[in-house]
Amino acid sequence: MTHVVTANCQACRFTDCVTVCPVACFHGDEERLYIDPDVCVDCSACIPACPVGAIKEEFDLSGDEEEWIQINAEKASDLPVIRSKQPPLPTADARRSELGLN
Amino acid sequence: MNAEIDTGIVRGACPHDCPDTCAFEYHVKGGKLVEVTGDKNHPMTQGRLCVKLKDFASHHYNPDRILTPLKRVGPKGSRQFEPITWDEALSTIRDKWNGIIAEYGGQAIMPHAYLGHQGTLNGLTSGDAFFNRLGSTVAEKTYCESGSSTAWIMTVGPSGGLDIESFVHAKYIIVWGMNMTSTNIHGWPFIVKAQEAGAKVVVIDPVRTRTAKAADWHVQINPGTDGALALGMMNVIIAEDLVDHDYVEKYTLGYEELKERAALFTPERVSGITGIPADDIITLAREYATTPPAAIREGVAIERSRGGGQAIRAITCLPALIGAWRHVGGGAMEMPIWEFPTNFDRICRPDWIRPGTRVVNELDLGAALTGELQLDPPIKSLFVYNSNPMSQAPAQAKIAKGLEREDLFTVVSELFITDTAKYADIILPSAMQGEQLDVMVTWGHLYISLNQPAISPPPDCVPNVEMFRRLAKAMAFNDDYWDRSDWEMLQDFYDWDSPALEGITLETLKETGWARINVGLPHERKPHAEGNFKTPSGKCEFKSSVTANFVVPVWRSMYEDMQPGEPIDPLPDYIAPHESRETNPELAKRFPLSIVSPKAHAFLNSQYANEAPKQKRQGEQTVFMHPDDAAARQIVTGSTVRVFNERGHFDGRAEIVDALMPGLVMANLGHWPSFTKSGTAVNSISSDAHCGMGMAGSYSDNLVQVEHVAA
Would the CB atoms of A41 and B50 count as touching at under 8 Å? Predict the structure, then answer.
């Protein structure tokens, strides 16, 4: 089992999740974050930390979201670990409003 | 004590046998527990729970929960029960026990408990006073930690050792025999932080676990050979004169003898025993001795083989040899429970034990019940609480045979009908943590915590402390021990006037939930910078003043007599496993594979292994194998395989991984036998032989064979 970062991270990249992760399992590029499934311990601490509800436990994914399992695994293996909170993307607040999560 | 609020947040603490003892916030709405979260301000919990506890609220409402006392109405083990009243349950127990006591004496009754709950009122020692008063057999509870406790106390005394929070100051960290990201997840961030600050993290484990993958260096070791590695490190440290001679001279005992012993363990010899290249042993020793502060996290897994106790002895000698204790963040951590001023004598009342009362070790349960131990009087009644031996104890088949005995009167206090409870004649329903008051015992950090009831238990479910009050009354015990309230007991069970608890009272804990005990702060604490070891000599005893095996009294109702007592070498040594290809080649012809059975990630021992979300996260009973061993047996990932030896067998789904070394198999502990393909689980193959110290189990010291079976 693992947790995955789904579509809502795109254009947001709030990175609050990395501050609560006990195992430093978040990797990222300029656009968004991904979880390394070999490192995630399924504690779910990151789920409430995400302002846009982007993180889900694998078996809570809807059919459409299942593609994120593979995307997270592949991307995480090539990208650096993000260990500390970074400024969100400039588009984050607009994106959050668009998602109705303000 | 019932819950006082209808809606709001109540402070609590995790009930489990885990070093993390998290601070909880119970969220209550309309008298219902809706969520349990971790306290953000607790330095260890840091607002997080874990895969096991993150949906703890719903656990309280599991529809399978036992809600009334039950009596057996079908054959033993058939799971046929009918509800009865507490009055009927208590009078049945009373009449049965009075009959057994009249015919066989009190020692024909044996309690069986471990850390299914880790509270002061409801945990390990919750029944000790009752059974001591009853005159039962004293049960020696050595499921876990007992071998380590004996070895640690022989070496450094009952010291709390290195604080897990001080690990952030270390520059060299050895995690020895512990998969921290599964079993000490709230300790791991301190190591991650040290690593980010430049510390090198080394994990010593037979398996490339998730923890080992996160380390800078994974040292893969043959199971049960840790003592040889520690002695090999000493050999190098002494030969290359990396010893802190000043520290050794002032604060240790027996250096010359240790030097002589360590000289026998050359890197080449140790390489042959451990499977670790000699160069790596040399590098590990050099780096450890020359990168201060150097910290060791000792895992409980080390004790789970014949030489496990001596291995802990050897490892615990290492920090003194290099003077690691001089530094904040230097030294070793085993478990800091000894820092807490708990009045175990007041809890357990060893003064009630009749002189000459026998001791039966709980890991010998099968042998005790089946007559193999030739006990006189035989065990005629078994009372199980806080434990599930059909999953967790070795020699599963033997225990099942014992529990099937028609003449054995078995009472089990439980939350669910486990594989042990299914054999009961009477089942008593327990309260859950959100429903009861307790001060939690902690073995992984230095905070005392109060768990307050957030909701009321179902009407017939009672905390263990109340169950023993009722049993005491039923047995007509008139002692005022059982006249006290839970709150009064907690007042009596700790030395609230001790320096460690200065400024902390039950009343303050009611407000704060938890408090750090006064034993030094993480950025200052150096408990043995100037010796101050709590041994008879006051020094770190390389050569121990103890020469006979013993179990630390807290694991045996505080009983001092009838200790195992066989001679033990006062110097650390490497004791080879009972069962390995090297030590038992005859056995290995038939059963050529070693097996280790670490705790499951999503279960807490066998707890939660009956709940669907946790089963989904953990997956079915899986047998992990190296590709070479799998290929030789035409086994592929997904094959159904049988793991077996002369003691029993269990089936599982094969998973082929190179995280294991060739010749080693791994299967996680905790799956309920009744939910597996074969109706048996990993302890069906475990031997009930003991570790050489503290009567610990030898779960990682077993040979097996694996074969493909038709699915």
Answer: yes
Higher pLDDT, B301 or A1: B301
- Segment B469-494 shows an average pLDDT of 98
Which chain A positions have a beta carbon within 8 Å of B186's beta carbon? 22
Of B48, B616, B617, the CB nearest to A45: B48
- Determine what percent of chain B is predicted with pLDDT higher than 90: 99
- pLDDT band for position B3 (cuts 50, 70, 90): low
B198 and B298 together in one domain: yes
Please state the φ and ψ torsions of residue A32, each to the nearest 5 degrees.
-165, 180
Question: Hey, is B34 helix, strand or coil?
Answer: strand
Distance CA A91, CA A52 (A): 13
The type of residue at B495 is D
Question: Which residues of B fall below an 8 Å CB-CB distance to A?
Answer: 38, 46-51, 54, 181-182, 185-186, 188-189, 192, 196, 210, 213-214, 601-602, 616-617
Question: Which of chain B's residues have a Cβ under 8 Å away from the Cβ of A23?
Answer: 181, 185, 188, 192, 210, 214
Same domain for B243 and B386: no
Whether residue B473 sits in one domain with residue B551: no
* Alpha carbon distance B615, B386 (integer Å): 21
The whole-model pTM stands at: 0.97
Q: Please state the three-class secondary structure of B59-86 as a single string.
A: HCCCCCCCCCCEEECCCCCCCCEEECCH
Q: Which domain does A42 fall in, by range?
A: 3-98
B362 and B322: one domain? no
Instruction: Report how far residue A24's alpha carbon sits from residue A17's, in angstroms, rounded to the nearest whole number.
Output: 10
Domain that holds residue B613: 585-708
Residues B113 and B200 in one domain: no
Closest CA to B399 of B669, B128, B647: B647
CATH number of the CATH domain containing A59: 3.30.70.20
Domain count, chain A: 1
**CATH code of residue B619:** 2.40.40.20
The length of chain B is: 711
Q: Which residue has the tokens 């010359």?
A: B256
Q: Are residues B366 and B395 in the same domain?
A: yes
Total domains, chain B: 3
Amino acid in the structure at residue B543:
K
Q: Does any domain span residue B638?
A: yes
| Mean predicted confidence (pLDDT) in B159-180 | 98
| Unique residue bearing structure tokens 């070479």 | B628
pLDDT at B1 over 60: no
CATH of the domain at B102: 3.40.50.740
pLDDT value at position B591? 98
Contact residues, chain A to chain B, C-beta under 8 Å: 1, 20, 22-24, 38-39, 41-45, 59, 83
Q: What is the ipTM of this complex?
A: 0.96
- Flag if B51 and A38 touch (Cβ within 8 Å): no
Are B196 and B260 members of one domain? yes
